[in-house]
Amino acid sequence: MTVQLLLNYWLGAGLSVDGVYGAATTQAVSTFQSKMGLQVDGEMGPQTWTALVVQCSSSENAAGDAVLAVQQQLNYWQFPVALTARFDTQTANATQFFQRSRGAEVDGVVGPNTWNLLVSGCNSSLTTQLYGLDIGWPEGLVDASAFSCLYASGFRFLILECFTESHGFWQDAVTNAKNARSAGFSRIGMYHFFNRTLDPYQQVNDTIWNLRENHVQFDRLWFDIEGTWPSDTASNTQFLERAQQAVADNQVPGGIYCGRQWPQYFGPYAGAKEWPLWYAHYDSIPSFRDWYGEPYGGWTAPTIKQYDADGSSTRHCGIEIDSDWTPAYPN
Q1: What percent of the chain is predicted at pLDDT more than 70?
Q2: Which are the contacts of 321, defined by CB distance < 8 A and separation ≥ 6?
Q3: 138, 179 contact by CB (below 8 A)
Q4: How far is CA 299 from CA 117, 173, 202, 240, 267, in A?
Q5: pTM for the whole structure
Q6: By CB atoms within 10 Å of each CB, which of 57, 58, 224, 311 scores lowest?
Q7: Are β-strands 254-257 and 130-135 bridged in parallel, bridged antiparallel, or unpaired?
């Protein structure tokens, strides 16, 4: 349908937009190729496709069949927009979400690269996307050979649990972090699972002190926010703010792991929106396409997705992992 819409844009061909590459569409492609001085074969090869696509953006007030083609493709990839044939605000926002999900430059402009991604569904060849994993305390001590196997399998970042609700600071996290670094992992974060009965500032401060005392090199401390929290959102918010203050006082970058239960825990609180967001949706798809249209906590986009966990597909190199993906790892 996209090819037919674009041919109608260029030629006013009046093609029926039915998604069938039949005789009428083949003839229209040949006509377009002749008009553009291309080899006439009626086929949509790379040169024909490059000539056919039309740059669309809100700044150009784009409208017509080319924009309708953009909207059709966005809907196909589950970034819902109304079929208005105008590059309106909804379409611009959906384009940015799509670009971010594919690791492309996020500019809201549908140029050649974004067209290619819309049609192919691939991630950008220019992407900085990375696959990673996270490991919690139930897995125990992981030796360097397992981390070497994971690195060789293509995982490039790692987030390790270092404080548990029931055990406090987990000493094996120190060894795991060092084993991972010796195996080649240079992007290592740590995550803290809160004990709600302890002072938030003190427990976070102790976690950071223990990591530093044991010479653990880590790039960020993530707060793992899930499970059962009290129903008092004001009290929960005060708890989180105290924990955030401990991170700030120690001059450590912070991050949030939380899903759509955020409003249930913290109401409209958006005081962590400057921190990167890591969320879980176990659909086995390394993409943010499921995020579109449902923001919370002040975030306009996530940074990391945990896309697979708690299944047979999550066992790698002899250990259970949670699989993560990011279009660009947070510095």
Answers
A1: 93
A2: 133, 134, 135, 139, 150, 314, 315
A3: no
A4: 25, 29, 27, 16, 14
A5: 0.68
A6: 311
A7: unpaired
> Residue 319 in contact with residue 311, Cβ under 8 Å?
no
Distance in angstroms (rounded) separating the CA atoms of residues 31 and 108: 31
C-alpha distances in Å from residue 101, one per residue of 134, 215, 331 = 20, 35, 18
Summarised one tens digit per residue, pLDDT across range 118-167 is: 876 656 544 467 889 999 998 899 999 999 999 988 889 999 999 999 99
Give me the residues paired with residue 221 across strands: 190, 254
Give the residue from 128, 108, 125 showing the smallest Cα distance to 116: 125
Looking at 136-184, which runs of residues are DSSP E strands? 157-164, 168-169
Residues 131, 154 contacting (CB under 8 angstroms)? yes
Q: What are phi and psi of 80, to 5 degrees?
A: -65, 130
Indicate the helix (H) or strand (E) that contains 193. strand 188-193
Helices first, then strands: H and E counts in the chain: 11, 11
Asked whether the beta carbons of 109 and 56 are under 8 A apart, the reply is yes
Among residues 245, 307, 299, 261, which one has the least CA distance to residue 277? 299
For the chain, give the number of residues.
Answer: 331
Beta bridge partners of 191: 161, 222
Q: What is the pLDDT at residue 265? A: 97
In DSSP terms, 254 is beta-bridged to: 221
Q: What is the crossing angle of helices 2-11 and 65-76, to 10°?
A: 170
pLDDT in tens, 16-51: 888 777 888 889 889 888 988 888 888 776 677 778
- Residue 311's CB: how many other CB atoms inside 10 A? 11
Among the listed residues 269, 266, 270, 275, the one whose alpha carbon sits nearest the alpha carbon of residue 191: 275
Dist CA 280 CA 92 (whole Å): 26
3-class state of residue 180 by DSSP:
helix
- Residue 256 and residue 277 in contact, taking contact as beta carbons nearer than 8 Å: yes
